[in-house]
């Protein structure tokens, strides 16, 4: 008997010309970085299809709502286009990606006769089933998704979900009203500048209130390109230049509950990747900012100069330590050579 596993996704018409490792890496990149599904590489099983031109794969999403979300994103060319993933990296040439739930074969064991107690009463044994399943994921009773939950769900946000407090790596802005038109570019420039100067990864969340609760901001699909353009313009105004590989922009849909979307509401995430130790401060048209716990600090002229002095002193200290190590190594080598010379003299004598 065939049944559907609602946690495991089936992908077909996959490339066979790039090798197993590259294909698995590309599928993992799609699920984790573009669909927001938290899986591990060993959740992906690729079948080489007995040497045929195209391969297929199974991906264990672990949760029904996550698998449902993935299939919704992959169901058509238009929905796949919105994910902004390069599907030619996984899909065979001249073929379209096919997706669905994994079908599993369930074999019913032969029923055993019911033995009797000495008193003559029947013992009731339930018939057992054995799943022939590569992924040991239990099947659901189908009612799990009907419960409203505020627990994190990968790939979406739930209205009222709590994202924690503002920290050095998180800044929340509720948005609303004319925020996108009048305020967003200033905030993006200010907070991205602060994250860059802190050297650590940080995210500006737009559509989350000051207490960390998700509300979402009205941003239909037709507006996303314009919003992305405003964000790019705000970041281009920062000096020195901030290249596109340093930041990522995501539009994550907001749901009232799993399966019930809050129409056209998103959380806009501007993710700044860690820059590490920087040689000079980034500055925006609105000033030079540094990230502090739960906020930002605007640096004045004296503070910028002090930062530069400390940076210069740190460089000098590093160079002095490096020079000291080289001198120690040189002295050790000279000492070793002198000992070898004395040893040779003693042997001759």
From TrEMBL:
Pfam family, one: SLFN_AlbA_2
Schlafen AlbA-2 domain span: 166-298
Gene3D superfamilies given in the database record: Schlafen, AAA domain
Record InterPro entries: Schlafen (IPR029684), Schlafen_AlbA_2_dom (IPR007421), Schlafen_AlbA_2_dom_sf (IPR038461)
Protein name: Schlafen-like protein 1
């Amino acid at each position: 008997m065939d049944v559907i596993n609602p946690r495991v996704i089936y992908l077909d018409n996959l490339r066979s010309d790039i090798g197993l490792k590259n294909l698995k890496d590309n599928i993992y990149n799609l699920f984790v970085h573009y669909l927001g599904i938290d899986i591990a590489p060993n959740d992906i099983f690729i079948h080489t299809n007995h040497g045929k031109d195209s391969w297929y794969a199974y991906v264990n999403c672990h949760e029904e709502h996550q698998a449902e979300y993935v299939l919704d994103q992959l169901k058509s060319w238009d929905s796949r286009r919105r994910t902004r993933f390069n599907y030619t990296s996984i899909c065979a040439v001249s073929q379209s990606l096919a997706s669905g739930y994994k079908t599993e074969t369930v074999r019913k064991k032969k029923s055993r006769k019911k033995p009797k107690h000495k008193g003559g009463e029947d013992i009731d044994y339930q018939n057992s089933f054995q799943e022939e399943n590569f992924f040991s994921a239990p099947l659901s009773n189908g009612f799990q998704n009907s419960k409203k939950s505020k627990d994190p769900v990968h790939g979406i946000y739930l209205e009222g979900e709590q994202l924690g407090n503002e920290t050095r790596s998180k800044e929340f802005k509720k948005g609303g009203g004319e925020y996108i038109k009048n305020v967003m570019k200033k905030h993006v420039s200010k907070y991205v500048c602060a994250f860059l100067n802190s050297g650590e990864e940080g995210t500006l969340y737009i559509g989350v209130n000051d207490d960390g609760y998700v509300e979402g901001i009205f941003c239909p699909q037709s507006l996303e390109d314009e919003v992305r353009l405003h964000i790019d313009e705000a970041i281009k105004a920062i000096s020195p230049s901030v290249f596109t590989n340093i930041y990522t922009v995501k539009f994550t849909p907001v749901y009232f509950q799993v399966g019930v979307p809050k129409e056209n509401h998103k959380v806009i995430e501007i993710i700044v990747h860690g820059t590490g130790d920087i040689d000079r401060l980034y500055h925006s048209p609105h000033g030079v900012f540094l990230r502090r716990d739960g906020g930002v600090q605007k640096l004045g002229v004296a503070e910028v100069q002090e930062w530069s002095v400390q940076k210069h002193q740190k460089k000098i200290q590093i160079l002095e330590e490096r020079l000291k190590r080289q001198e120690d190594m040189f002295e050790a080598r000279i000492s070793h050579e002198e000992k070898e010379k004395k040893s040779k003299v003693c042997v001759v004598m």
